[in-house]
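Q: What does the assembled structure look like for these inputs?
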Amino acid sequence: MKETAKKPRSLKRRSKPAGLPPGTLIYVGERKVETVRITYIDYDEHNFAEKQVSNIEECFAFKTTPTVTWINIDGLHDVKIIEKLGQQFELHPLVLEDILHTGQRPKLEDFEKYIFIVLTMLSYNGDNQTVEAEQVSIVLSSNFVISFQERIGDVFDQIRDRIRNAKGRIRKMGPDYLAYSLIDAIVDSYFTILEKMGEKIELLEEQLVVEPTEQTLHQIHSLKRQMIVLRKSVWPLREVISGLQRTESALIKDSTSIYLRDVYDHTIQIIDTIESFRDMVSGMVDLYLSSISNKMNAVMKVLTIIATIFIPLTFVAGVYGMNFKYMPELRWQLGYPAVLLVMVLVAVVMLFYFRKKKWL
Amino acid sequence: MKETAKKPRSLKRRSKPAGLPPGTLIYVGERKVETVRITYIDYDEHNFAEKQVSNIEECFAFKTTPTVTWINIDGLHDVKIIEKLGQQFELHPLVLEDILHTGQRPKLEDFEKYIFIVLTMLSYNGDNQTVEAEQVSIVLSSNFVISFQERIGDVFDQIRDRIRNAKGRIRKMGPDYLAYSLIDAIVDSYFTILEKMGEKIELLEEQLVVEPTEQTLHQIHSLKRQMIVLRKSVWPLREVISGLQRTESALIKDSTSIYLRDVYDHTIQIIDTIESFRDMVSGMVDLYLSSISNKMNAVMKVLTIIATIFIPLTFVAGVYGMNFKYMPELRWQLGYPAVLLVMVLVAVVMLFYFRKKKWL
Amino acid sequence: MKETAKKPRSLKRRSKPAGLPPGTLIYVGERKVETVRITYIDYDEHNFAEKQVSNIEECFAFKTTPTVTWINIDGLHDVKIIEKLGQQFELHPLVLEDILHTGQRPKLEDFEKYIFIVLTMLSYNGDNQTVEAEQVSIVLSSNFVISFQERIGDVFDQIRDRIRNAKGRIRKMGPDYLAYSLIDAIVDSYFTILEKMGEKIELLEEQLVVEPTEQTLHQIHSLKRQMIVLRKSVWPLREVISGLQRTESALIKDSTSIYLRDVYDHTIQIIDTIESFRDMVSGMVDLYLSSISNKMNAVMKVLTIIATIFIPLTFVAGVYGMNFKYMPELRWQLGYPAVLLVMVLVAVVMLFYFRKKKWL
Amino acid sequence: MKETAKKPRSLKRRSKPAGLPPGTLIYVGERKVETVRITYIDYDEHNFAEKQVSNIEECFAFKTTPTVTWINIDGLHDVKIIEKLGQQFELHPLVLEDILHTGQRPKLEDFEKYIFIVLTMLSYNGDNQTVEAEQVSIVLSSNFVISFQERIGDVFDQIRDRIRNAKGRIRKMGPDYLAYSLIDAIVDSYFTILEKMGEKIELLEEQLVVEPTEQTLHQIHSLKRQMIVLRKSVWPLREVISGLQRTESALIKDSTSIYLRDVYDHTIQIIDTIESFRDMVSGMVDLYLSSISNKMNAVMKVLTIIATIFIPLTFVAGVYGMNFKYMPELRWQLGYPAVLLVMVLVAVVMLFYFRKKKWL
Amino acid sequence: MKETAKKPRSLKRRSKPAGLPPGTLIYVGERKVETVRITYIDYDEHNFAEKQVSNIEECFAFKTTPTVTWINIDGLHDVKIIEKLGQQFELHPLVLEDILHTGQRPKLEDFEKYIFIVLTMLSYNGDNQTVEAEQVSIVLSSNFVISFQERIGDVFDQIRDRIRNAKGRIRKMGPDYLAYSLIDAIVDSYFTILEKMGEKIELLEEQLVVEPTEQTLHQIHSLKRQMIVLRKSVWPLREVISGLQRTESALIKDSTSIYLRDVYDHTIQIIDTIESFRDMVSGMVDLYLSSISNKMNAVMKVLTIIATIFIPLTFVAGVYGMNFKYMPELRWQLGYPAVLLVMVLVAVVMLFYFRKKKWL
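A:
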C-alpha cells in the first residue's frame, strides 16, 4: 500500500487498449475492498430507512418512490453490479464507463433525466505523508442520488448523521441538496489537506533557516508534487460547481443554488491557497539553493584563509631549509628569531587584510 | 501575539469538520477582544445619534427607521449576539457563517433585501514588521449598514468624524455611500502598506549593493510572502468593487456608482503596484545570488594567486633542500642568491600574467 | 530510421518554395512505404465487405451507395492516386495539399458536403525511446469516410474488428460514428504514451535521488522535448474535437455528439497530465542542479578539511627543517616529541572545530 | 532632484489618510515650479490668440465661446486655482482630486459633458540616466481642452507651432483633434525613451561579451526597473486610447477616430517593444551569470593545473629532504639528476593529460 | 550592411519628433536602393502586360481600367513619388505615413474603398547568420494592388511567373486573390527561416552534448533574439490574416476567403513552432549551465584527489626532514623504507576511499 501510495494517480492510469468501443465496462483501478458494499438511505421529512443490502436488486424499487433515496456503492471491481444498476436506472453506457474508469478528471454532465458528477475525494495518509485520491461518482436524479466510491471510508459520516437525526434542513430538502451536501463535504475535506500542507511548509521554512539538508529539498520537491496532484483535482472541480450553479436543469432547485454558490466560494479559496502555496514553495527552492551556496562560501573562505596564510610561511621555511653552502643568514645569531618574527608579521598583515575584506 | 502574527492567515484557517451542515455558527478565529463592543451611529441630514450599547437588542429598533444606521460589532467570539442579530435583521444563515468563519476570501453577495460584503482590512505591525489581516464583513440594506470586525481598532475614525461633524456629503447620502466610505477607507489603508513595502524594497536594494548577507535574502523572502498575502486580499477585492459598481441592485444609487468607479481605479492601481513590486523583488533574488557568487569569485581569486605563486617557489626551495650528496649547485658561491633571483623572477612573471588576465 | 526519428517533426518540415500556387500537390514527407495500400470496408447493419484494391478507381462506386464506406490509404508518395480520388470525391485542392503536406497542425475544416480533419497519430518507439508522429487525415461525408496515413500500421485494428464482427453499435451507426471511433482510438493511444512518460519520470526521479549523472540531465531534456512535441499535437486536437462537437453541420448527428464530448474530456485529461508532467520535469532540473552542487560541496569539504589540517602542520615541520645554526629547540632532548604533540593537538582542535561547524 | 528621480514614482505615492472624504483637494506631489503658469490658446480656422495670464479668471470667458480654447496649467501646488477652475467649468470633485493626486494610473472617464483623461508623460533624464514621469490630465469638452501638468516643459511645442502657423489640419478641426494631438505627442515621446533603452541594451550586451563586471549587472537591474515603470504607464494607456476610439460620446468626431486608431497602433507597438526588451534583458541576466561562472572556471583551472603539477613534485623533493641516516639514493652519483628527470617526466605527463582533457 | 543587420529592427526605429502633425511624410529607414524601381503588371484572363516605368505617372491610367493591375514600388526614399501616388489613388495621409515609416507592426486597415495591409518580409542572411526584416505595404482595391518594398528583391517571383504564364487560377481571379498570393508567399518564406533555426537548434544541441563553449551560449542567446524578432512579426500577422478572413469588406470575395483560412492555419503553425523553439532553447540554457558546472566539478575532483593524497604525504616527509638532534627513527636501519611503505599505504587507502565515494 505504502509503495503505491507514493506515486501520484496521474502516473498510474491504466489506459484501455486504443480502439475499444466506448462504454466497454472494465474497472481499471486496483481492487481496494474485499466485497462490494451497497447501502441505501431512504428518507423524506417524516420517514427514514437505512440498510446495507447484499444484492443490488433490493435497491431497484426506489427508482420510482417519491422519497429521497441515497444509494452508496463502495468498491467498483464487480462490474456486474454496476451494469445491472445502470440498466435499471437507465444510465448511459459512457456514464458507467466513467464510473469504472477511475482517475477521471472531475466533471459534470447533464443527461436531462439525471446529472452525472465525477469528483476526487482526497485524504491525507499520515503514515507516508502523502495525499491519496479516490474517485467519487454521483448520479443525481429527481428522487434519488447514487454515489460510487472505490473503497470503504469517506467524509460523509456527518451527512449520514444529519439525515438520521433530522439535523438541519437536509430532511426537508430534495436530492439536489443531498448531492450538494456530498460535494460540500468533499470540498471541506480539502481544507484539512491544505492545513497539513501549510504546517509542512512552515516546518520546512524553519528547517531552511536553521539547518537545510538535501533531505529538505526532497521534501520540498515532494510537497510540490502533491500540490500538482491537488491542483489537478481542484481546478476542474471549480468548473463542475460553477456548472451546477448555473445549470438550467430542473434537477437543481433555486433554494439549493445559493448553497452551491457557497461551495463555489470555498473552491476559489482553495485554489487561491494552492496558488499561494506554490509561490511560497518555489521561493523556498531559491532559499535552499542560496543557503547551499552560502555554506560553500563559508567552507571556501576557511580554506582560503588557512592556505593563504600558511603557504607563504611554508615557503619561507622552505627557503631556509635549503642546503646551500653559502647562505649567510643561517649563521646569524638572530637569524632564527628574525625569521619567526617575519613569519608572525606576515600572518598578522594577512589576517588584517582579510578582516578588512570582511572575510572573517 | 508576535508568534502568531508571523504566520500568514492562509496557513492557519481552522477548517470546520467536513460534512457539518452549512450555516453552522462556530467562530473559527482566536478570541481577540475581551468583550464584544457594539456601537451604533444613527443619522440623517439633520439628526445624529451615537452610542455604545451593551445589549444587541437596543439596535433592533433601527431596522425600520428611515434614518441611516451604522451598527458596528467589534469581536466575534460571542456567537449568540451574531445569531440574534441575524434573526432580527433576517440575514441568511450562510451570511452569518461567513461572518464568523473569518479568513474568507473578499466577496460580494446580493440577497435582494441586502448586500453582503466581505473585505480584508490589513494593518502593518511595526513591531515584527509583518502585515496583519482582519476580516471586515459589511451588510448593506436600504436603511442600515452593519459592520463586523474581529477586534477593536479600525481605519474608520475619519468616517465617524465626518458623520459627527457633517463634513462632506456623507450626511446627505444614504447607506450605500456609507458602505462605499468604509470600503474606500480600507482600500486607502492598503496604500500605506504599499508605501511601507516600497521603503523596505529600497532599503533591501541598498543593502544588496553595499553588503548583502544571508539576512538580506531572508528579508526578501519574507517580503515576498507578505506580497502573496496582500495579493490574495486585493485581487478578489477588485471583483467585489467591480461587482458593486455594475450591480443592478436598487440598494446602490447611481450617484454612488461614480465613487465606486474611483475606488475601483485605486484597486487597479494597488494591483499594478503589487505586480511591479513582485517583478522588482524577483529581480532582487537574482542580484543577491550573483553578488554571492561574485564574492566567492573574489575569494577564489586570492587563493589562486597566492597558491599559484608560492607553490612553484616552495617546490624550488624543496629541491635545494634535498640531501643528495652530489648536488653541484649547493656548493656554488652564488647558488643561493641565484635561486632567490629565479624565485623573484617567477613571482614577477606570474603577477604580470595575472594582471594581463585581469585577475588583479 | 533511427537517425531521423530522433529529430522531432517540427524541425524537419520541408517547406514548399514560397509563392507556389496553393493546391500544388507535392508530397513533402519521406516515402515510408514501398507501395500505396488502398483498402475499403463497406458496411451497414446487415452487410459487410472488406477488400484491398490495387486500383483506386475500384473505390469510386462507393461515392453514391447508401452504405457506410471506409476507404483507407496507407502511403502518400503517389500523388496521382490522391489527385484522382480528390477529383472523384470532389475534394477542394487545398484539402489535397494538406493531406500531402504532412506535418500539419491538427485542424478541422467544414466544407458543407464533407468535413476535413487532420490529426497526429503518435506511437512510442521502444528502440530509441522516442515518440514518432504520423499525420492522419480524415474526410467525413454523409456516406463515406476516407482516411489517409503516411505508412502501414495504425491504432484502428480494434475498430476494424468491431465492424467485422458487428460488436457494439458501430454497424448500426453512420459514418460520423466511424470518424468518432477513429479519433477516439488516436486519443486513447496518447494515454499509452503518457504512461510511458510517467514511467520514465519515475525512473528519472529515482535516479536523481540515488545517483544523478550528466546522462540523467540529458534524459530529462529529451523528455522535455518529447513533451513539447506531444503538446503541440494535443492542444490543437482539443480545438478540433470541441469544434466537431459544437458544429452545426448535418454530418454530425446528435447521437454521436455525446461520444465526442467523451473524447473531449479525454483530451482535456491528456492536456492536464502533460501540464503536470511539465511541472514535475522542471522541478527535476532543479533537483538535479542542486544535487550536483551538493556533490561539489562534499568534494570541497574533504579538500578543505585535509588541506586546513595538514597545511599548518607541514609549516611547523618546515620550520624545524630550517638549517639555522642557532635554533635552540633542535637540541632539546624532548624537542621532537614535543613538536609531534603540538601537531596532534592542532589537528584535534581543528577536527573539533569542523565537527562543531557540522562539516563532518 | 537627482536623489528623488532615482526612486520610481510607484514607490513614492504619498497616500492620503484613509477615510478622508472623496474629492478632498490636496496636492500630494512635491512643488515642482515656483509659480503656477497659466496659458491659453484660442483659435478657429481664421482666428488665433495666445496669452499667458496671471489670473485664472481671465480664462473663464472661453467656457462658452464657439472657438476652440486650450487652457494649459503648469504647476499644481496652488489648490485654489484648480478649485476655482473646477467650479467654473463644472468639473466633478473626483476629477479635481485625480488631477491633484498625481501618480494616477492612466485612465479615461466619460462625464457626458466632458471627457477626463489622465496620462503619464515620460522624459529621459540624461544626467542620472533615469526615466522621469509627470502626470498630464486633460479635460476635453465640446469647445475647450484644459491640460494640467506638474511642471513647466512638455512635448507639446510642435503642436503649439502648428496652431500658431496653421500647419496641417489642426486649425480646421475641433477640440477632439487637439486632445488627440496631445496624446499623440506623448505617445511619440515614448519612442524616444525606447530608443534610449535600446541603445543601453546594446551597450550592455557588448559589455557582457567583452568584460562583464558587477556594475553591468546593476545596470541591467536598473534597466529592468525602468521597464517596469514604463510598462505600468503604457499598458493602461492602451485601454485609454482604445476606450477613446470606441467611445459613443459625441465629443469625439468620426474624423478624429481614424487618428486615434493610429495612436492605438503606436501604443501596441510600444508594448510589443517593451515586451521584447524584457525578454532580451532577462536573457542578459543568464548571460551574465554564466560568464561569471565561466570566469570562475578559468581561475579554477589555473589553480588546479599549477597545484596538481607541483604538489607531487614538492612531495618528491620532500622525500629526499628527509634526514634518515640510511637512504641509499642520496649517495648515488646520479641520484640528483635522476630525480630531476623524474620530476620533469611527471610534469610532462600531467600537462599531456590536461591537454587531452581540454583543460589547456 | 553587415554592421546594421546585426541589430534587430526594433532597436533602431528612428522616431519622428513628438508632436509632428500626423501624415507628415518622412522616410525613416535608410536608403537601401539607388533609384526607386516602379513596375506594373496588368492582366485579366486573356491579356497581360508588364513594364518597368521610370515615371509614376505612367501608372495612373490603371486606376480605372477593369483589368487587375499590380503596381510594385521598390525603394521608399523618394517621398515625392509616394505622395503623387497617394494623391492620384486617393490614399489617406496616415496610410502614406505608415508606408514610409517602416518598422511598423503588421496591421490591417479597412478604408472601404481600399484595404491597407502592412507586413514584414523576413529573409535569412547567410553571411552573418541573422534574420533581416523589410516592411511590405499592400494597398488592395477593387481593380488594383499596389505593393511597397524597401529594396529590390522579394519572394514574389513565383507569383510573377504564374501571372505571366497563366499558371493556376491567378489570372482568372481578382486583385484580392493577388493580395492573398503575396501574403501567402511571405508566410511561406517564414517556414524557410524556421527551418534554418531548427537546423541551428540541432547543431547547438549537438555542441552542448559534445563540447559546449562560451561561444555556444552566445549563439543560443543570439538565436533567442532572432526568435523575439520573428515572434514580433508573426503574432500581429495572425491578427491581420484573421481580420482579412472575417472582414465584411466587398473587396474580399468568398472564393478567396477559403485560401485565407489556409494561410491563417500556416500562421498558427508558425506560431506553434516558434513557441516550441522557445521552449527548446530555454531548456538549452539550463543544459549549458549544468554542463559548465559539471566540468567545474570534474576539475575540482582532480584537484581534490591530487591534493588530498599528496598533502599528508608531504607532511610526513616534512616531519622527517626536521633537524632535531634526537629523532630516533632517523637512525633506524629500516626507517626510510618503513616511511615509504607508510606513504604508499596512506595513498592506497585514500584512493580506495575516493573510489568508494565514486569520485574516480
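Chain D has nine helices and seven strands.
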